[in-house]
């Protein structure tokens, strides 16, 4: 979710380029905004990239509302903004205008100087539902448009972990809108259950008392809003005099029930399934850059994919022969000689020891489906591995389609890139490019878990990492690897044998050749050896399953 303070900014931002193309929208909404706010001193700027990092922002110093045009449409001629019908054609964009109007009309207070940032952040969160509630009370029809914009202002990334702070943030930005009569209690039922699971009923009830009191505050009552923010922190066990800044999520923790519940809510609002919404979100954030090259696979790569698929099928279908055992009672196959012996023993008055029936042990259960995630380090020191691992991504994906397995290949560097999504059969080889950083390893592990559910399920799960271990935030990476290990996911680390070249930048917080615990580490001398090691590990895991 966009941080609430980004919707209400002091100062004067630069005007983005392209304003002339959307001038008609800016003029039409400037003429319309007095009806929404009761103010005649406001202007509206509509342009792609406006509002800074937020979809919409109100700048009190400029008396200006900015709306990012990308949330309206791809081009300005989608409709005529001077006509009333344009609201129905671009409901999200118009909802952003109404949201900005709510701040312009009712957010008449400013954070007092010297206020700890954490208190300012909480007060801004409470202001979101307070301003929208006041707008709805003054103009009841605006609720329709505000409902459209709620989903635009929410983002699952900000419910990244299940802790008290993020549960409270989700409560303030979504559950509080129920009492503001913007969304309904039915809409947020899964979110309420998740927040209750993290905070407990008592603390959630205390937070609700706070936001309901905030809804009754006057538009210019800054002191009361800051006092309510302090009470909010106390309920969450945070001392704002000791912890000035807002808490950040632990990079070593996976997303939990809060993020899942928020995805469910956003998916329902978008009219899709949670799986479809999550897939679209991943595609939007982690698609390969357009400058990466594509090529047709070679005959050797086709042969390698067929060979690996054959090995995986053979390992999956190979079962130990059922054992045979004698039995004194049916069912089973009657052994005539043993039956005659048993009758003779009975006729002689002896206790029969012969077992006339032969039974077969049950067949072993079907082997689980293989889920394999391959993470490739895209830092500069791994440059000679990128071509081979790009080829491997195509081989693994095409082999998996033939062998009832699921694979994905993810590159991590200065950003996380899903090279080959699960359950796809790429027709071309996409060649990765290296960069300078490895800051996104923890994020890449979380994306792999989201795509293949590495922490849960009855599948055979494996994470293979091709990296020199020269990474940022090693403690967070270790924590994630340990979590996967304890959940039953095997972690294989392929480590190049050669060190970085002379003159390569180093950092005291980073470690060359770091070896992670709870991972099987193999040193490889060339890219081909790394590919073979991953394939062999997958086949061995299936054989022994």
TrEMBL record:
<feature type="region of interest" description="Disordered">
    <location>
        <begin position="1"/>
        <end position="20"/>
    </location>
</feature>
<dbReference type="Pfam" id="PF05762">
    <property type="entry name" value="VWA_CoxE"/>
</dbReference>
<protein>
    <submittedName>
        <fullName>VWA domain-containing protein</fullName>
    </submittedName>
</protein>
<dbReference type="InterPro" id="IPR008912">
    <property type="entry name" value="Uncharacterised_CoxE"/>
</dbReference>
<dbReference type="InterPro" id="IPR036465">
    <property type="entry name" value="vWFA_dom_sf"/>
</dbReference>
């Amino acid at each position: 979710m966009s941080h609430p303070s980004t919707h209400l900014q002091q100062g004067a931002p630069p005007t983005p380029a392209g304003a002339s193309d959307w001038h008609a929208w800016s003029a039409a909404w400037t003429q319309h905004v007095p009806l929404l706010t009761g103010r005649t001193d406001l202007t509206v700027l509509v342009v792609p990239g406006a509002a800074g990092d937020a979809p919409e922002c109100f700048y009190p110093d400029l008396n200006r509302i900015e709306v990012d045009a990308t949330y309206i449409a791809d081009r300005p001629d989608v409709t005529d903004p001077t006509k009333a019908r344009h609201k129905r054609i671009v409901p999200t964009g118009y909802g952003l205008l109404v949201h900005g109007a709510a701040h312009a009309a009712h957010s008449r207070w400013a954070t007092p100087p010297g206020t700890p940032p954490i208190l300012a952040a909480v007060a801004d969160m409470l202001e979101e539902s307070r301003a929208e509630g006041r707008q709805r009370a003054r103009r009841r029809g605006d609720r329709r448009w505000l409902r459209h914009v709620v989903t635009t202002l929410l983002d699952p990334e900000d419910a990244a972990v299940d802790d008290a702070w993020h549960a409270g943030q989700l409560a303030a930005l979504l559950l509080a809108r129920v009492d503001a009569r913007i969304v309904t209690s039915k809409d947020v039922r899964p979110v309420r259950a998740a927040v209750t699971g993290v905070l407990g009923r008592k603390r959630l009830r205390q937070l609700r008392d706070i936001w309901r009191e905030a809804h009754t505050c006057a538009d210019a009552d800054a002191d009361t809003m800051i006092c309510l923010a302090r009470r909010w922190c106390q309920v969450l066990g945070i001392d704002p005099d000791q912890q000035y800044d807002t808490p950040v999520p632990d990079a070593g923790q996976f997303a939990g029930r809060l993020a899942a519940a928020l995805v469910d809510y956003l998916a329902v609002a978008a009219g899709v399934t949670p799986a479809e919404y999550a897939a679209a979100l991943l595609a939007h954030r982690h698609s390969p850059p357009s400058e990466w090259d594509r090529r047709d696979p070679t005959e050797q790569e086709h042969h390698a994919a067929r060979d690996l698929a054959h090995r995986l099928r053979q390992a999956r279908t190979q079962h130990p022969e059922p054992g045979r055992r004698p039995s004194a009672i049916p069912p089973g196959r009657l052994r005539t000689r043993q039956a005659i012996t048993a009758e003779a023993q009975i006729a002689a008055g002896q206790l029969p020891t012969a077992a006339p029936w032969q039974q077969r042990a049950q067949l072993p259960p079907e082997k689980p489906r293989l889920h394999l995630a391959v993470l490739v380090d895209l830092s500069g020191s791994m440059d000679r591995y990128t071509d081979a691992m790009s080829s491997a991504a195509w081989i693994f994906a095409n082999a998996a389609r033939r062998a009832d397995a699921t694979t994905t290949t993810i590159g991590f560097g200065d950003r996380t890139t899903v090279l080959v999504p699960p359950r796809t059969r790429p027709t071309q080889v996409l060649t990765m490019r290296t960069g300078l950083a490895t800051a996104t390893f923890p994020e890449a592990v979380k994306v792999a878990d989201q795509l293949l559910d590495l922490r849960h399920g009855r599948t055979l799960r494996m994470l293979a990492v091709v990296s020199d271990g020269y990474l940022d935030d090693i403690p967070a990476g270790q924590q994630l690897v340990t979590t996967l290990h304890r959940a039953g996911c095997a972690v294989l680390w392929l480590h190049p044998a050669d060190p970085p070249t002379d003159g390569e930048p180093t950092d005291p917080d980073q470690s060359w050749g770091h070896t992670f615990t709870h991972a099987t580490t193999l040193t490889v001398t060339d890219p081909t050896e790394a590919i073979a090691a991953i394939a062999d590990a997958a086949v061995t895991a299936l054989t022994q399953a």
